[in-house]
Amino acid sequence: MIYLLDTDVVAEITTRPKPAPAVVAWARSVPATSLYLSVITIAEIEAGIAQTADLMRRAVFERALDGFRDDYSDRIAAIGEREALAYLSLHRKLKSAGTSIDPPDALIAATALANGWTLVSRNIKHLARTGALLLNPWEFGG
């Protein structure tokens, strides 16, 4: 099984001084080769770093980003034609239902949908309407 990590999960396990024990336990229970990132997650993290005024914190976040770029170098999912078409389908589905989600979240969900992966996030309620398989590691029981 392949797990696509949402930005909140990446932030929790890489930059929190005291990450949630359940999230850490879940991440350790899964083979590293099964964990993937989206290019959209990388972009969201870059945007967050750029908005960090405290230069010391910014440096810590930049080092963390460099580290997981190295760690995940062969497991960073791009947006190709299949993902773009899944995004279009998802956008149409949500629009016809009179609802929507932010484009970055929709693109991450579309990546999971297009590849048959499980999207790992704390934001289950928000992402449930995408139809992606979801897992909340904050609820991991070990």
Question: Would you give an account of this structure?
Answer:
The chain has 142 residues and is of the alpha/beta class. Helix content is 56%, strand content 11%. It is built from seven helices and five strands, in the order E-H-H-E-H-H-E-H-H-E-H-E. The protein has helices at 7-14, 21-29, 39-50, 55-71, 81-96, 103-115, 124-127; strands at residues 3-5, 35-38, 76-77, 118-120, 133-135. The chain is globular, with a radius of gyration of 15 Å. The two termini are 17 Å apart.
Topology:
Blueprint: E1 3-5, H1 7-14, H2 21-29, E2 35-38, H3 39-50, H4 55-71, E3 76-77, H5 81-96, H6 103-115, E4 118-120, H7 124-127, E5 133-135
Parallel strand pairs: 1-2, 1-4, 2-3, 4-5
Helix pairs in contact: 3-4, 5-6
Could you give the count of β-strands? Answer: 5
Mean pLDDT reading: 95
Q: Which class of secondary structure composition applies to the elements?
A: alpha/beta
Pattern of helices and strands: EHHEHHEHHEHE
Query: What is the molecular shape?
Result: globular
Would you summarize the structure shown here?
By secondary structure, the protein is an alpha/beta fold.
List keywords for this structure.
five-stranded parallel sheet, 142 residues, alpha/beta, globular
